[in-house]
Amino acid sequence: MNSASRYPKPRPLSSKIAIFALIGTGFALIFIPLSAQAAVVSNIKVVGIERVGAEAVTDNITISPGKSFSEGDIEQSIKQLYATGYFSDVHISVKGQSLVVSVQENNLLNAVVFNGNRQIKTDKLEQMVGSHAAQPYSEAQAQADVNTIKDAYVAIGRNDVQVTTKVFNIAKNRVNLAFVINEGKRTTIDKIGFSGNAAFSSSRLSAVISTKKSDFLSFLTRKDIYSREKQTADEDALRKFYYNHGYVDFRVISADATLDTESNAYNVQFSLDEGQKYKYGDISINSSVDGIKADDLKSLIITRKGDTYNAQDIQKSIDAISKRVEEAGYPFAHVTPRGNRNPTDRTVSVEYLVDQGERAYVERIEIRGNTRTRDYVIRREFDINEGDAFNELMITRAKHRLDALGYFTSVDIKTAPGSAPDRVVIVVNVEDQPTGSFGIGGGYAVGVNGGPLVEASVEEKNFLGRGQYIKIAAGASTSGSQTYNLSFTEPYFLGERLAAGFDLFKSTTTSSDYYDYGEEGFSLRVTAPITENFATTLRYNYKVITYTGENDWQDNLSAPYQNLINNGPWTQSTVSQTFTYNTLDDQNLPREGFIAKLTQEFAGLGGDSNFYKISGKARYYQTLSDSKDIIGSVTVGAGDVVSTDGKDLNIFDQFMIGGSEIRGFEDAGIGPRTSDGDALGGTKYFTASAEASMPTPGMPQDIGLRSSVFVDSGTLYGNQADLYGDILKDSSALRASAGVGLTWSSPFGVINLSYAVPFLKQDYDKVENFRFGFGNQF
Fold first, then answer.
1. Using one digit for the tens of pLDDT, what is the confidence trace for 85-126?
2. Around Cβ 666, how many Cβ atoms within 10 Å?
């Protein structure tokens, strides 16, 4: 046993081989990295290049002659060479003192074409993809381009689009790349549903969100295109709506969109928790800023105890307080509302806290997401620049302005830390939307010789991404009336917030059986803001007016109109100024707010007219029922004109009113007239109107069809035109009418229909019960 212990048994041969193998492996693990780390080459040889130069290889590797390199350097060099897009295959090896780089070049793209695209133009697709002619063909880039094209079609409502690629060899190392697109059918929205809503109907909430159910006009409006971004914006719109109507506990529990692949249609469902409706409790203000007294700011608060809670009114109060504090010399002051909710009596007490805030400066403003609108168009809506004191009020104002432009589907402004604790980066994220439109509309021209009319127009609100507005329109009616208009506006003239532009116009109207009325000319205008809601517009207007009589006009026209025909054409050269005050919550369908315009006009800069004219109109909107979406409005207007040279006024210098102001009458249907019934116009007028509108029963609310009831009244009197011996019919008696109407916010514009019956009128007034026209009236 002892001898056996002192002399161990010989190991099997296989064990010896295993030991040597293990030792060899150890040496390999030790020496391979060491040799790689210590490797040095004296030159670099490039093999396989044909079109690109050797520099395209040597400049994109991390290895240099005479310097040691590692295995990691080789791997990094291979990655960088692939990243250039020039090569389809790369190998790097060491042979003696040389580093050998073997490459196989990618084929060169001779042309990139798109087949099957109709909804997105080729030039747009060319801007989206990364594959371009005269560049190396990369299969990875082509696949990335396929995904980019698909995303573009999804954004316009084509979820089932199919995109494939075909590569055609046309010569040695040259290929054509074709993207074959099957656009498929439009992806629609079959249903939009709400659950958990009791205070407001689903129809009412459908009008709040921007996503709409597909209908027969969706191919024009494009409001039925689903996107996750739009859904998020809709959730925010619902929160804002409920917060502005007292529901401070409102939540969107879920918002789901399910795509039915068979019908290629979405089903969008919002699950809501409305909570309880709250009113304001105690309202107070507290200032910790030296020199700013809380009592001096109380008058700026528009929230009142007992009123329904409204987040928008809180924001307006914050804006007003912030502005006053800033004007007092405290740019860093901060206004914060602190709410104390009392579920027992359903009230929210609000305390406005004014403190000094942290000193911070704007380091830079970053614009992201704009693919069409130019950066400077967005930057100019900010009242602050790099280096200015950071002010939240100015950020809020800028967001309101950007939203109001109508250039973007969404605007999101956030702040990020800058390079120092007192530096702030403002990040503006926007998403462009189409701003151009082409419209063909029809209507009915009112008047004695009225008849069907058609108008075609091309409009662009963001011309070439510069924020400029341009519109070209032309129209004609079966009665012979024709209109032509061209308008252009530069919203930031000379780099200032001045909207300057011009209007060119020409029209011919058949006013009666015996004469035609025509006018052509131009206007030059500039609008300057005074405050956020108050602006003034200066205009120069030049107009040539013609009256053309038929063969038998001598026997049928009154003497004043015979004079207009015999002594025309007439010219009118005027300057005017308009003050506009606008607090409407929505310019298309106002539910709250006030809009007023006051215009004064002076004629006498040459031409045939010499007068001073002043006119004004104001309209107030108020929601009468939130749940039923009933909107009430009251409108008043007045005007006066006087001669400035002591002579008679021309007929066309005076006011003419009728069906546009008092429905139920013809245009120029009330006011002074000759014994033959020809309208002469008047020097003074007053109008008033009350109206209530609501969604049309039985129709989906998001279609935009609203019904209304109204009462209109007014008068026009005081003719100062030369009658040439004719007999004047003139009375300042009140005219009034009542009626019903329909308003449709169609893709072609706002269409108005009304039926009114006058219940106060003069025997010589011209009645017209039915009216049909286009455009908003104010």
1. 778 788 898 888 888 898 887 788 899 999 999 888 898 899
2. 18
Count CB atoms within 10 A of the CB of residue 261. 8
User: Does pLDDT of 29 surpass 80?
Assistant: no
CA distance 758 to 737: 4
The answer to whether the CB of 563 falls within 8 A of the CB of 547 is no
Pairing of strands 108-115, 174-182: parallel
Q: Is the pLDDT of residue 503 over 50?
A: yes
Say how far apart CA 137 and CA 88 lie, in whole Å. 9
With H, G, I as helix, E, B as strand and everything else as coil, classify residue 674: strand
Whether the pLDDT of residue 563 is over 60: the answer is: yes
Q: Is residue 591 scored above 80 in pLDDT?
A: yes
273-282, 685-694, 766-775, range with the lowest pLDDT? 766-775
Q: Which domains does the chain have, with CATH numbers?
A: 14-105 (3.10.20.310), 108-182 (3.10.20.310), 188-273 (3.10.20.310), 279-355 (3.10.20.310), 361-432 (3.10.20.310), 436-774 (2.40.160.50)
The pair phi, psi for residue 643, each rounded to 5°, is -75, 145
pTM to 2 decimal places:
0.72
- CA 734-766-633 angle, to 5 degrees, is 50
Encoded tokens for 744: 């449709």
The sign of the torsion formed by the CA atoms of 667, 668, 674, 680 equals: negative
What's the pLDDT tens digit per position in 729-775?
889 999 999 999 998 877 666 788 899 999 999 999 999 898 877 65
Residue 548 CA: distances (Å) to CA of 170, 317, 480, 520: 70, 58, 13, 14
Nearest residue to 517 via CA among 568, 442, 445: 568
Contact 509, 517 (CB under 8 A): yes
Helix (H) or strand (E) holding 353: strand 347-355
- pLDDT band of residue 552 (cuts 50, 70, 90) is low
Residue located via tokens 């069409």: 372
pLDDT tens for 282-319 read 999 999 888 888 888 999 999 999 999 999 899 889 98
Q: Which residues share a beta bridge with 105? A: 87
Cβ-Cβ contacts under 8 Å for 329 (sequence gap 6 or more): none
Gap between the Cα atoms of 61 and 505, Å rounded: 66
User: Distances in Å between the alpha carbon of 646 and those of 602, 643, 653?
Assistant: 15, 6, 14
How far is Cα 553 from Cα 557, in angstroms, rounded to an integer?
6
**Which tokens sit at 299?**
């008058």
Of 39-48, 65-74, 568-577, highest mean pLDDT: 568-577
Compute the distance between CA of residue 378 and CA of residue 363 in angstroms, rounded to an integer: 17
Mean pLDDT over 188-206 rounds to 90
Burial of residue 113 (CB within 10 Å: 0-12, 13-18, 19+) is: middle
Long-range contacts at 746-753 (CB < 8 A, ≥ 24 apart): 746/217, 746/704, 747/217, 747/220, 747/221, 747/439, 748/439, 748/440, 748/441, 748/774, 749/439, 749/441, 749/774, 749/775, 750/774, 750/775, 750/776, 751/441, 751/443, 752/777
Helix (H, G, I), strand (E, B) or coil at 577: strand
